[in-house]
Input
Amino acid sequence: MILFVSAFALVSPACANEAAYFAITRFWVAGVYYAHNEDCPTGKNLHEGEIAKRALIETGHDPNEFLDRDGASYSQEKDAQLMQIITFRGRIDGKPANAYAFPESVSDPHIKTGSGKYGYGFNLDGKTKSSDFIDPETGERGVDNNLYRVYACNSHTRQLPPPQQSVAADFGSEAYLSSYPPYILEISSLDEKRDDYDVTVTISMSLDTVVRDASGEAAQEQTLRVDPDPRWQNVVHGKMKNGVLTTDVFDLNLPGNPEWFPEYHFKQARLRLRVLPEGKATGILGGYHDWLPFYRQMAIRGTQWELIGDDVPGTYYALKRLADGYPDPGSGEMTAISSAFAVKAVRVLIQKPKDTSSREEAQDELVH
Amino acid sequence: MYLAVAMLFASATGRAQSQEPFFTGTVHTGQSVSVTAPVGPPALRLLTASQYKATVADIFGSDINADGDLPPEIRKDGLLALGSAQTTIAPTGIEEYALLAHKVAAQVIDEKHRNNLIGCAPSVPLKITDSCTKGFIATAGRLLYRRPLTSGELKTQLELAQKGAGILKDRYAGIGASLTNMLSSPQFLYRWENPRVIRSTSNEGELDSYSAAQRLSFFLWNSAPDAELLSAAQSGKLDTSSGWNRQVDRLLASPRLELGLRAYFEDMLGFDGFKSLSKDLVLYPKYSSILGVDAKEETLRTIIDLLLRNGGDYRDLFIVKDTFLTKRLGAVYGVPTEAASDTWAPFKFSDRDPRGAGILTHASFVALHSHPGRSSATIRGRAIRELLLCQKVPDPPGNVNFNLVQDTSNPLYRTARQRLQVHATEPMCAGCHKLTDPVGLSLENFDTIGAHRTEENGAVIDASGQLDGVKFEGANGLGKAMHDSPAATACVAEKLYEYGVGHSVNKAEREWLKTNLGPSFEQEGYRIVPLLRLIAMSPGFRAVVNPVIR
Output
């Protein structure tokens, strides 16, 4: 028999009325699919090549010198020059400026943003405005999700027919799941036989990446360790009713992707999650979030986004224009934007960190 | 390039070998005699893939890659070890072995390895008759052929190496040509068992020392004899009781015994079946080839931990709750694992856990003996009978109608038990299903990949079972029944014996197993290491009988 000492305690699989744990495997801006593009009545934003063409014209270059008929550059050398021109198309005091570091050095291209009647999310401000969405799932009116409006008319962030999300979301989620630990969602009590009862919801972080099953999804009932870092322990009261979990309003803090979006800090967040019988859960998490980090995640790889058709300074202006929460006390400008994120999760088992204040106790404890 | 050179001289090598016998002693032809002693014929066995790789690793180092596309192995009487005596090499197989030999030789002579493995550089680059090169070829040849090269063989190999070096203008390439030739040779690929003495009155004799050494080494280590064992053979020490005992105990005490035991249980449990195992990934997405690898490893770790590290009772394999899991296995079993990442960690199923049949409830057993999309009580029952109890179950006749038992959507027969009960009323089916189903149905709480379930198609599963008159409930009951079954311990003793000697037991051997080995195994508490020793020390291990020659 082998003694195994661990700082983590195994938590047995959930039985009825015991806690249930889920690993969140998809977390991306939620949008509604419009089959006939009704949400972008004036059309979609520029395709790849067109942003490059516009930048060349604006800076006094001949597009034919760099781009072929299809908008692709002629050679690697031309490519490098093109990147420089696009990146430094901004102007400050007449001098070239990095358009991503200084987006206001580029004039506002007024990218097309989403309208449409339906959008996922919550009524965050308590008001019902004519410009607000109706949630297609709950029918709630006054839904605030301006973040999706910013992305709605870009080809790579536009919502695709379900079960897809968007090109960026599907790619990004897949890349994230392969490389980073998922979020862990704990529901203090899950009982199919009961309805309309109170629960405590904890959203935290795993320390482990997931193993995949044959469908590419995270394998259900795998064991993940929970990160004990107190910064990522988010606890909120919720209610289970008709198989759907809804939480109270709370502030949610989670680490993101260190490369793109280091941390999430949602204000006035709330979660709605449908627990499915086959060990899965889907839902929406909404709340206000500072808008600038959404711009930064694009600015970090500026030309890469623009060459696939997403105008980076244009996104800056759109985020700023559509920001609708948390006015700066000085300037009055909105610092946060309403948002809703699609959540998909699978049932897992977890190892929780034990209280290791007594090292001797931890060393003496026989795990199995 | 030196492959071609090596092959060019292959036939010359063969001709040279046939001129000089490599064993001493005479063989008498005689009248047919009935064999009364527990002894069988010598075997000529093709190295298995794992033996090939282990031998190359032991001689040249574990970083020499010996993976190759080798001919498929044959299972005979439940063991690949017995089938290796019947495996032939087709022309394409010869090519595959030659390519693998070339691959291995190329690594031995490359810049990374040559200094360590070959060593010296002569003053004249293309002259390889120096004692150092001769010494390397003689040493390598001795280890590869598992006996010293004859003078003729050594001369041929040196000529080949010299010629190769001359053509290719590279001394090491010449050595590579010799190595390729030896690695392609039947002397390496086959385990030759040469009788030393055959008594004309009884046609019985014994293996010569080298043959006995390799039989012992492949039995306990699944690899060729090491230098010390070969030296014991060469000096005659293996022909003495004390010398033989010393080597048996040395091999048993070595860490390499674990590899030998793993090879045996991989063979006995039919784990080569994982190469072709597939599951319906829509219904069972948790299954993957990686899970298959993990499943095999879980069982082998459990076996080694119980039988070797802890010196446990073989019968406890059917009731042990201690095992080792990865995250993937934990996900299938629905249990939390200690594994921080996808690594192995020990795990103990609780007393309440329905996994009470030890390795029989491992994914390796229940998944391997199931259909792609559903479990199979019949296949599992047959596997228990044949693999673990040494009881033969006939194949189904060719004209059986399987529609009823395969129709899992039939609302009248929602569980496997219900479907099999109807199927087994067919007179031509009942006889065999009586042997298999009462045993296999006790594992129905485990689906085709090993996950636990209590229902099938909404109907509660009845996992009651029966084994040779003993009734029980579920996997826990099956495990206890197997633990208490005398056939289980008799079977492992018989199979290990056959594995060691390379042939199916004859009547006399079976009687000896029953009256001698079996009781001794029991006295040793059914521990595996003493059983291995008993077999290695048994009269039949070194003795051979000549086949009747007319």
Remarks:
- The longest helix of chain B spans residues 289-309.
